């Protein structure tokens, strides 16, 4: 049995996507998004996509880099994923060891990872010196059978409110950027902080290969972006909420719920069968919204961290 840990090559994209789909089936992953994340990673992130081979077959992968936008220097991340068929054979251990070595050499003093919330994965992390903290939960919705809230009638919308797709508003990139930065700043987290600049945001998010602009819906209030739901799809049958949020001056009016309602109806009409989303367990407003749509928990995660010094 031969284990090799190496860097990603463009020809690996399909195999990496397959590993991620098997290891974390609650997320949309495509070969295009795998390659795009590597190509568009900000320079300050010192990003590496580690590949784990077992007897010549790609069976594991790990996003690895510096949390360059955090106000506290020295934080880093690595998120290993191992194909279920290859677990317990040393690939994950070798990959995590290489990530720790690399990040420490780049000046990182702590490493943060997401760990599936079950005993095998939690035990793996704890045996390697990781401490567990906050949680998150993947949620699943069967679009084929879900009883979605009725589509809002445009005539019944509150005064000044309009619902549009991102595809209809592609000339307003800077406004989308400002709205996304504001909403993201209020999300629970431990690796964000400083504003990402417009050029980096454009490459990472606006041009993301899985960003579905037809199904991503915006609530405008008096013509300005007030709330939105961003959607990633595999262009086949899987739909994933990337971010749903409302700008601070418009919260408490149900605008994000309206945007998500329209998006889910359009997704079902377009033939998408399964919808996924994920929320921090402290994000009670979004958890409540998703329960009303019929999302049910599919898999928990825990944040794990370790000192590298």
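Q: What amino acid sequence fits the structure above?
A:
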């Amino acid at each position: 049995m031969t284990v090799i840990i190496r860097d990603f090559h463009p020809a690996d994209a399909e195999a990496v996507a397959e590993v991620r789909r098997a290891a974390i089936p609650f997320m949309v992953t495509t070969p295009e998004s795998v390659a795009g994340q590597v190509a568009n990673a900000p320079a300050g992130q010192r990003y590496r996509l580690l590949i784990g081979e077992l007897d010549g077959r790609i069976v594991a992968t790990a996003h690895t880099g510096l949390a360059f936008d955090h106000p506290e220097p020295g934080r880093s991340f690595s998120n290993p994923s191992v194909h279920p068929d290859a677990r317990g054979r040393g690939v994950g251990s070798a990959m995590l060891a290489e990530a720790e070595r690399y990040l420490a050499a780049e000046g990182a003093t702590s490493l943060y990872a997401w760990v599936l919330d079950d005993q095998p994965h939690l035990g793996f992390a704890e045996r390697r010196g990781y401490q567990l903290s906050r949680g998150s939960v993947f949620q699943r919705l069967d679009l084929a059978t879900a009883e979605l809230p009725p589509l809002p009638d445009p005539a019944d919308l509150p005064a000044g409110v309009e619902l549009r797709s991102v595809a209809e508003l592609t000339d307003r990139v800077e406004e989308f950027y400002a709205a996304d930065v504001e909403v993201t700043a209020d999300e629970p987290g431990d690796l964000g902080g400083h504003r990402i600049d417009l050029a980096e945001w454009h490459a990472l998010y606006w041009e993301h290969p899985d960003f579905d602009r037809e199904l991503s819906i915006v609530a405008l209030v008096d013509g300005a972006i007030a709330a939105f739901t961003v959607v990633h799809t595999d262009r086949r049958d899987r739909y994933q909420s990337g971010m749903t949020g409302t700008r601070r001056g418009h919260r408490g009016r149900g605008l994000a719920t309206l945007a998500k309602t329209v998006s889910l109806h359009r997704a079902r009409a377009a033939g998408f069968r399964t919808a996924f989303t994920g929320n921090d367990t402290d994000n009670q407003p979004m958890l409540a919204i998703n329960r009303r749509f019929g999302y049910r928990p599919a898999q928990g995660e825990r944040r794990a961290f370790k000192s590298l010094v």
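Q: And what stands out in the fold?
A: The mean pLDDT is 94.
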